[in-house]
Amino acid sequence: MNGSKLSWVEKYKPKTLDEIVGNDAAKKDFIDWLQRWDRRGKAAMLHGPPGVGKTVLVEVAASTLGYRLIETNASDTRREDYLENVIKPAAFNRSLFSSRLMIFFDEIDGISREDSGALNFILELIESSRVPIVMAANDPWSPNLFRIRDKVYMIPMHRIRVQSIVKRLRDICRNEGVRCKQEVLMLIAERSEGDMRAAIEDLELLYSSREDMDLEEAEKILSYRNVEKNIFETLRMVAFAPTLEKALTSLSSSEEKPEDILEWVFENIPHVLPKQSLYRSLRYVAGADALFKQISKNSLWRILPCFYHKLASAFLVAPQKNRASFSFPTRMRERFKRFQHEKNLRELESFFMKDLHMGRSAFRRDLIPLLRLLSKNEDFRRSMLNRMVDQHLKELYSSVILGEARKRFS
Ligand SMILES: Nc1ncnc2c1ncn2[C@@H]1O[C@H](COP(=O)(O)OP(=O)(O)OP(=O)(O)O)[C@@H](O)[C@H]1O
Ligand SMILES: [Mg+2]
User: Fold this and answer.
1) Which residue, by CA, sits nearest to atom 27 of ligand 1?
2) Is the distance from the beta carbon of residue 54 to the nearest atom of ligand 1 less than 6 Å?
3) Hey, what CATH class is 162-222 in?
4) Which ligand is closest to the CA of 168, given by its number?
5) What is the pLDDT of residue 224?
6) CATH: 3.40.50.2000, 3.40.50.2300, 3.20.20.80, 3.40.50.300. Which one for 23-156?
7) How confident is the model at residue 323 (pLDDT cuts 50, 70, 90)?
8) Are 46 and 57 within 8 A, CB to CB?
9) What confidence tens digit (pLDDT) does each residue in 149-158 have?
10) 69 DSSP β-pair partners
């Protein structure tokens, strides 16, 4: 299970209603509404802040009540052919599907007023559909939605309480075999502002190397979220800039380091552009990367604007999607993990260097491989661990040499 490639947000996505934390009233209300649904073509809208479980509630409710879900995001919803060929047949059950259907327009506030075709289509559908129509939105009060709002059953969802988030995080840690301090979990939960997705992402960021850490260290690492808030704004402005000049101004006025901006752009381009444009776009990013290496190697800071120009161009190779959620760069996450591993290695080295009077490079080159080999033997492993009186040291040994998740040695 530890080798799983899924992010923790995916891995711990609730599969049953009980696993969806908090928002009990909304859960009950939604299930009741579905059970009462009576072919008179009414729709419901779940609305609330990000990461509280709107999408997941619809998915889980559908599977629990035996519905097959036809799920569409904002960019599909704006495609006329999709509405005509997929949604319409489903709404009138003229489709090939044999099971009960439910139509779900997710992120409905991502549809702009210019897409009046899509909005009209949905309005008509609400009146005439023979299957339940469900929507989700962060901001149901956006002016685009006012005509729809009047016709749907509104179900509010709220931020998740800190204690409930902590409990969920603790369960995840237990399942991952990670030991974590209560105060660190509290820190994550408080910073998340009721957003369960953000909390689980931060938990993974801190603990994916499966090392415990103290509050101070966690605070340092999590301070990326302050940076993220700014960079998030920058990305949004660049990604949705109407012209290259506007994109360029937003990029070059950002306070973030150019190399960090590059990572964020690289990670998030796929969220913003359609697949078929990615190759062209990433060529600009690669160009910017190569250019930045030259700039920093030779102190050519005066040509930094060319670097920003390449990055901004990466976004403008195709019309962007209407709305995107940006994510934390994987390569930066890896860097944190390496940083953690390196720190452990150094601590362990210090112990052995004193004990065996050997140098750092000899330890890394000769002793680590030897210890790894010998530690395959149960007796050797046990005697090594017994020599280490300090609990912390045992854990370092276990993590660095045995490559294991933290263990209790009681
Ligand atoms: N109430 C919850 N209980 C347990 N896990 C949750 C809950 N809410 C969110 N999560 C976690 O966060 C992930 C994202 O949740 P979801 O997509 O349902 O959020 P959302 O409210 O639809 O957010 P957005 O407004 O950004 O679309 C889930 O896959 C799950 O891992
Ligand atoms: Mg959602």
Assistant:
1) 50
2) yes
3) mainly alpha
4) 1
5) 66
6) 3.40.50.300
7) low
8) yes
9) 889 999 999 9
10) 102
Which are the contacts of 383, defined by CB distance < 8 A and separation ≥ 6? none
pLDDT at 408: 36
pLDDT of residue 359: 77
State the distance between the two ends of the chain, measured CA to CA, in whole angstroms: 24
CA nearest neighbour of 265 among 345, 248, 106: 248
Ligand 1 atom nearest residue 197's Cα:
12
* Gap from CA of 51 to ligand 2 centroid (Å): 7
Q: Which two tokens stand for residue 273?
A: 């552009």
Ligand 1 touching residue 274 (CB < 6 A): no
Cα of 61 to ligand 2 centre, how many Å?
A: 14
CA–CA dist 354, 76 (Å, integer): 63
The model's pLDDT over 329-380, given as tens digits with 9 standing for 90+, comes to: 777 777 777 777 777 888 888 877 777 777 778 888 888 888 888 988 889 8
Whole-angstrom distance, CA of residue 294 vs CA of residue 208 = 33
Strand order through the sheet with 133-137 = 67-72, 100-105, 133-137, 43-47, 152-156
Residue nearest to atom 18 of ligand 1 (CA): 53
Task: Indicate if ligand 1 lies below 6 Å from the C-beta of 278.
Answer: no
* Two tokens, residue 330: 């994987």
Q: How many CA atoms lie within 13 Å of 41's alpha carbon, on the beta-carbon side?
A: 13
Question: How do the domains of the chain map onto residue ranges?
Answer: 23-156, 162-222, 226-315, 330-400
User: Position of tokens 């380091």?
Assistant: 257
Q: Is 59 helix (H, G, I), strand (E, B) or coil?
A: helix
Global pTM reads: 0.64
One-letter amino acid for residue 152 of the chain: V
**Number of other residues whose CB lies within 10 A of the CB of residue 245:** 10
- Number of C-beta neighbours around residue 346 at 10 A: 12
Confidence of residue 404 (pLDDT cuts 50, 70, 90): low
